[in-house]
Amino acid sequence: MKTKLQTLTATACLVLIATLAACTPVRPAETSNETVLKTMKASHQPSEEQLRHTLSPEAYAVTRQCGTEPPFQNVYWDNHRAGIYVDVVSGTPLFSSLDKFDSGTGWPSFTKPIDKAGIVDTTDKSHGMTRTEVRSKDSESHLGHVFDDGPGAEGLRYCINSAALRFVPVEDMEKEGYGPWLAPFATAGFVAAKATPVAETAILAGGCFWGMENILRTIPGVIATTVGYTGGTTENPTYKEVCTERTGHAEAVKIIFDPAVITYDNLLDYFFRMHDPTTKNRQHNDTGTQYRSAIFFTNDEQRKTAEKAIARWNASGRFPRPIVTEISKAGPFHPAEEYHQDYLEKNPDGYNCHYLAPE
């Protein structure tokens, strides 16, 4: 049985929105949050001619001509399955079943969007009234309207046309590329929570740490990089002190990486491709013990992997001389001064003697 509020809401929505009525198209205004959803299904906006052929007539009328579908005669108004509702044009995630509720209006209703940055509110003054129209930021498609009579914390009701949406059930989200949106469903008990990957640490030295970090931070699986000094005896050394060669430290990069994406062995292969491991205490024009080639292992498994990697690269014939890279147990790592961090990202034309050789 409908409550008084639901009956009033249904009546208001029916009066305010005529079936397949045209509203005045309004170009979405810029929003303060310019977050880009990187897993959009579409990489570009299709032309109107393409949309006319790829969308159903009802979807085209709703999204491109501001139409409204009949209440209680659309595919998602009574859908209770777990999943997300994505933009039928761009594939951008817009609404979640976790925020869907039965408003009694005959249209899919939500208390909030998945990400407000993907939604644009505009003023709709069509039909002699003032309403707040909801459009998709990515595709500029008309979705529906938002009203202030919802049951959620913000008191909003997003009244959305089914024809503007495509439903992706929770069991299909991963294979369709919507895995990043599964966490709330795991919390709600709809899917099993995935174990958080355990990050590992590697510490490598191979000459000026500016160039090494510039390559390492772009490698898939590398989560974070920090340049600093290690392998010596001086506590909290400065760059000037390290340059004297009296501290015993090497310029090095501490790498946090995801072993599920890149193994330590693979990371060492990149290491041997980005510097010359056959020159002792030297990389190109940089000379001194601080520029030595070194692998600082954090556990015995890393030590064994490093030894095998050096043997493999020595046998590969890639270098004219034997590898002189030292293998040492990792000790205290002292982050370098702030201006050294991501130096070549901040100064693209800065000094760099590193490049990544072909595999």
Please describe what this structure looks like.
The chain is an alpha+beta fold. It has 2 domains: 4-187, Metal Binding Protein, Guanine Nucleotide Exchange Factor, Chain A; 200-346, Peptide methionine sulphoxide reductase MsrA (Peptide Methionine Sulfoxide Reductase, Chain A, 2-Layer Sandwich). The chain contains 9 helices and 17 strands. Helix 7 (264-274) crosses helix 8. It starts with a helix and ends in a 13-residue tail after the last helix. 38% of the residues are buried. Residues 1-44 have low confidence and may be disordered.
Q: Helical region count? A: 9
Oligomeric description of these chains: single chain
What Rg do the Cα atoms give? 29 Å
Count of individual beta strands: 17
| Main sheet attributes: strand count, strand direction, barrel closure | 6 strands, antiparallel
Give the CATH level 1 class of the largest domain. Answer: Mainly Beta
Give the fraction of residues assigned to helices: 10-25%
N-to-C span: 69 Å
Indicate the CATH architecture of the largest domain. Answer: Beta Complex
3D shape: elongated
- CATH names the topology of the largest domain as Metal Binding Protein, Guanine Nucleotide Exchange Factor, Chain A
Q: What is the H-and-E element order? A: HHHEEEEEEEEEHEHEHEHEEEHEEH
The number of distinct structural domains comes to 2
State the CATH superfamily name of the largest domain.
Peptide methionine sulfoxide reductase
